[in-house]
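Late entry, evening session. Most of the bench is empty. Finally got around to the prediction I had been postponing all week. Sequence below, unchanged from the version circulated by S.P.
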Amino acid sequence: RCALFAALMAVCAWICVPLGEIAFTMQTLGLFLTLGILGGKWGTVSILSYLLLGAAGAPVFSGFQSGFGAILGPNGGFLWGFLVSCLVYWVLERLGRIPAAIAAMAVCYGCGCLWYSLYAGDIGILAAAAKTVVPYLIPDAVKLTMALSLSRRLKKHL
């Protein structure tokens, strides 16, 4: 199951609409489907596997990218933010799936925004948030809602 959801993350990364340096992908849908079905522990293992595949050179990141160049590029904070999000979800899932997922999404945004601010160098955190978070709030809320709904229905069939 972990391998299946690592593959799902790759497919979701390949569904990509470039919007400047930060692309719109379906990865947050894949992330929260993974967490909703596998739970925090095995979801973390799955996402770690996905990231290790990409780091090893498999073209699993958005735009069919791979390697440490992708992990250290402008989107890199979101990539490693997926792993941090899984850990947050794992810790908070006892409080319920919805609060855990919202906190995990906020952490992912924080990692991506902070990394982009450091990567860009001359951009402040608020400008980075305007570029990397604000345009994605509504689409990600829709994807998060879809993932939680789908995972509840699919979990009983897996």
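Two things to note before I forget:
The chain has a mean pLDDT of 93.
The beta strands are 16-17, 24-25.
Will write this up properly tomorrow.
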